[in-house]
Sequence to fold (880 residues):
Amino acid sequence: MGDFVLNVNGAQLRVSAPAEETLLSVLRNRLNLTGTKYGCGEGQCGACTVLLDGRETRSCMVSVESAAKAKIVTIEGLEQNGKLSAVQQAFLDEGAFQCGYCTSGMIMGATSLLHEQHNPTEEQIVETMEGHICRCGTYPRIVEAVKRASRLVAQGASR
Amino acid sequence: MNHRDERTSEFGQSISPTRPGIAGLDRRDFLKVLGGGLMVCLTHASSWAQESGRASGGHELPKELSTWLHIAADGRVSVFTGKVEVGQNIRTSLAQLVAEELRVPFDTITMVMGDTDLTPWDMGTFGSRTTPTMGPQLRTMAAAARQMLLEVAAERWHVAPASLTAADGKVADPQNARSLAYGELTRGEKLVKTVSSEESLTPAPEWKIAGAAVPKAEGRDFVTGKHKYPSDISLPEMMFGAVLRPDGFNAKLASLDTSAAEKLPGVKVVQDGDFIGLVASDAFTAQHALSAIQAKWDVPAQPSNQELFAYLKNNPESGRDDGQQHVSGSVAQAMPNADLKLEEQYTVAYIAHAPLEPRAAVAEWTDGKLTVWTGTQRPFGVRDELMQAFHLPSAQVRVIQPDMGSGYGGKHTGETAIEAARLAKAAGKPVKVVWTRSEEFTWAYLRPAGLIEIKAGARRDGTLVAWEHHNYNSGPAAIGTPYNVANQLIQYHAAKSPLRQGSYRGLASTANHFARESHMDSMAHVVGMGPLEFRLKNLADSRLQAVFQAAAAKFGWGISKSTPERGFGIAGGVDKGGYVATCAEIQIDPGSKKVRIRRIVQAWDCGAIVNPDGLRNQLTGAIVQGIGGALFERILFANGRILNAHFAQYRVPRFSDTPQVEIVLVDRKDLPSAGAGETGLVGLAPAVGNAIFAASGIRLRSMPMAPQSGVPGEPDPSFRS
Fold:
């Protein structure tokens, strides 16, 4: 067991965990931040996606020890003062979910994409989001939501 | 709207029907928390009571347990149903139907769903039954409540009920310019209305809230990560469980050494017959300890992919297919006289549901009562499993189903609930069990594989005269042909399945439609007619005709001719009250033989539409999910082991597989609403196969049609995907 200080959603959180425990497991099981989901534990589905220093990262593939050096943002950290981020708002407006289990990861992936590419083409969205699975098959609406979010950002909303 | 947000009642207790906060609250307490007000109950005698009466077996409900609807003094409406929300959007659509009949704003409704202590008994959420059965049931309760509120107001004002109107949560007396909110009418007294006959329901053409594109209930909780799925439930002092799995199916334990696992801090190993599990204070240690267990297993020789279809045909399961046949006229006499005949075999593979949230359960024992939060489509069925496993009466078991990370027919059973309960009992603390992805692929059940043999005969003018259809193992759903054929022999043959199999979204309907609609396409080719022309010639069902014509019109069917690189296909059918026609445009890369679906147009009729936005989402999802089974999804197995139990090896549809999707809704407000969760899947595979045939002249008769790689010993697939 080791003691770590994680920078999660702007807060310094102390946690004791084995150094090799995944960030996903620590977020969900030790910090009760359950918005980040387990889907496969192998980096194949995207459900566990968080931002590490602004870049989308599969939290099931990162140890808590290595994540302790980074600025971590989870789905719980996007809403600011009761206002949804542009990506969250766009997903809500488009109804871009069914069961919603993939939604956190999708939103984190899209947030990262819009950081890198303010006005992505449909091809860029598909290529970037390919690592995220929606078993309910909501992909067309998710693509529309990412486009809508990019328009909201262009109008001055925060990602 | 905040249906399930923590709210505080006048008694200061938290009401949160799907959160752990009220675990200690039984139904009577819960109703107390809700306060007086109007309760609408159901008498057991009612003839239209659908599942609750007809198929409930020993589940005759005590009266106080049969409350379906409650209106509190503050005007908030609680609706109780054993159906569960799995992403199909019934939390929204059922609330719309109640709001419509009760004449209240949509936002005043809280749906309490899938909690065996709080909701009336229900068979489960499957078979596209929620909209056609629970919909009318709740509408009737709401209409009865509205009528009672009118009567209470009439009595208070000494006027005739017929002179009053109900709207927007109020009863109004227009002649005397006064009104009272429902909450004011129910305040301070307990009103119970027992409903036993059909109330007059609002016809769909007059709907204002039902029929509208109301956004998903509590949508905000899904974009903020706030919604608690079963695997997110956490209780004080909760431990984490893990279960040792055998090396293969039907394995016998040969040796076991748990000493290394037991040396790890806080780990307790639990052995109970064949069951070997453990608990630990954290999830990491639980998995670590599991991998420290040394076990040897004897796995018997078992069938593999290569011999699957011969095995299914040669190993009938007697007794399960009784009565599953349809005979009309005489195929034996008509077939030899047909001008043109065609006989083919079709197969469908085992596929996995692979819900993104794997099976999960949290179990807690309190004073001998077991409470389990778990992801299931059958909370009452899981309660029965727990009652059997632990020899408990129903009052001692409560199953709560938080809206889950879906199921697609894959979560009917309670294995994880039993595992968590067993470990919690041994540990003396609450225990959470969440299956890993490979456990989900391996130890859940699969959509049945199947072999279908079809022989058809037609006259030279394109009239079908004989149709013989045999389905081995995959199931009888939608096995009957919707086309007019005088002579039919249609049979389902149950078989022993080498792998554990069960329900699946669209189950056998997908297989039977794939075979039938592929064969219809081949027959059209044989008789020299266009695929649409041939279908319409042999079709009398006006609703199916209408969706074929609607899909064809939107698609531009017949405008362009198929080429070797671009094919157009059409298919359709009917099941569970839903009518579907699907047009597909596919592209084939001439070098790599890679098939890509470019465009899907799907027309759909399920009677009066309750929520067109939710419906479009469901239909798009069905199409996308259908792509997996149509082109590449397939469980590979050998000797009792699943060979592709990971998303890296078991390919599911992703963004790049998704075509342009256009949905045409045929809203039949004159007809009862049917369910829409499943049948939207069945047109996709045959439409795609028919498009591949139109482009290439190659008829693909096995789903998946373009797998990543062949089964060892089988020829390589003609196409890739």
User: Anything to note?
Assistant: Chain A has six helices and five strands. Residues 139-154 of chain A form the longest helix (16 residues). Chain A touches chain B through 59 residues (CB under 8 Å).
